[in-house]
Amino acid sequence: MDAKAQKKLFDALRAVDTPTICNALEEARGVRTATGFTTQHLHPTEPDAPPMVGYARTGVIRAAQPAVGSAAEKKAKRVGWYEYVVSGHGPTVAIIQDLDSNPGTGAMWGEVNSTVHRGLGVLGCITNGSVRDLGVLAKGFPILAGKVGPSHAFVHVEGWGMPVDIFGMTVVHGDLIHADRHGAVVIPHDLAAKLPAAIALLARKEKVILDAAKKKGFGIEVLRKAFAASEDIH
Fold first, then answer.
1. What pLDDT sits at residue 2?
2. What is the DSSP-derived secondary structure letter of residue 138?
3. How far is 138 from 91, CA to CA, in rounded Å?
4. Cα 156 from Cα 103, distance rounded (Å)
5. If you placed Cys at 131, which of 8, 109, 137, 158 could pair as Cys (CB 3.0 to 4.6 Å)?
6. pLDDT of the chain along its 234 residues, tens only?
7. Does residue 60 sit in the same domain as residue 122?
8. Does 61 share its domain with 171?
9. Could you say which of 169, 188, 207 is where a domain stops?
């Protein structure tokens, strides 16, 4: 996809919320699904932020125990993550799985990391781990986190580029992600270009029902007719 086509597609995807994307994916597939999206609550640091639409950069962390290795090895991993998250085709979204038995013991995401990642051009982060520094996080860098906590404990990156799982959403490097205050969903690359048309179709179908429900005299018979009219829209 060239830059112009990507911008047009991403603008269309950012114009709607994540639940709408989930609905549009069902329309594009022709079938419902119970996979591909987060299924537990994530705390949004910027609930009114526009949706994130970008390519996944995956990583895994731990915080309950200190990192293993020499000082040089630890430094290399820390810098290596930053190099990785901005590599390749963008824009990118950091997708971080906390592997501890109690995810969120220590927060990777706070004032410093949010500011660094935003400065590097990363759109935001989705993690089952924790976030802290709520009053001083980088503005314009939305984070969806499994919990809020006060400490970073022994947090460290253990690796990157592997498949991760965020509350039921399996993500691999390069997946197209759509996320907002509701949660996140993976958009299969082969369906992405079909979504603007699916979104428009669903809006037309829903409008018939919504308009009927708002009119005076609305009742079961009117609802039946509205459902039938909606089903006739293709």
1. 85
2. P
3. 17
4. 13
5. 109
6. 788 999 999 999 999 999 999 999 999 999 999 999 999 999 999 999 999 999 999 999 999 999 999 999 988 999 999 999 999 999 999 999 999 999 999 999 999 999 999 999 999 999 999 999 999 999 999 999 999 999 999 999 999 999 999 999 999 999 999 999 999 999 999 999 999 999 999 999 999 999 999 999 999 999 999 999 999 988
7. yes
8. yes
9. 188
Q: Are 30 and 145 part of one and the same domain?
A: yes
Place of tokens 């500011």: 115
Q: Are residues 139 and 226 in the same domain?
A: no
CATH code, 137: 3.50.30.40
Number of domains in the chain: 2
Across the chain, the runs of DSSP E, i.e. the strands, are 43-44, 52-62, 92-98, 125-131, 143-148, 156-160, 164-166, 169-171, 176-180, 183-187
Q: Among 148, 82, 139, which residue's Cα sits nearest to residue 109?
A: 148
- For residue 104 the two structure tokens come to 């969120």
Domain that holds residue 164: 3-188
Whether the bond between 91 and the residue before it is cis, its omega within 30 degrees of 0, is yes
Give the helix/strand (H/E) hosting 25.
helix 18-29
**Residues 146 and 210 reside in one and the same domain:** no
* Cα 209 from chain centre: 29
Which residue in this structure is represented by tokens 């993550």?
A: 81
For residues 182 and 19, is the Cβ–Cβ distance under 8 A?
yes
Total Cβ atoms within 10 A of residue 125: 27
Cβ-contact 104, 88 below 8 angstroms: no
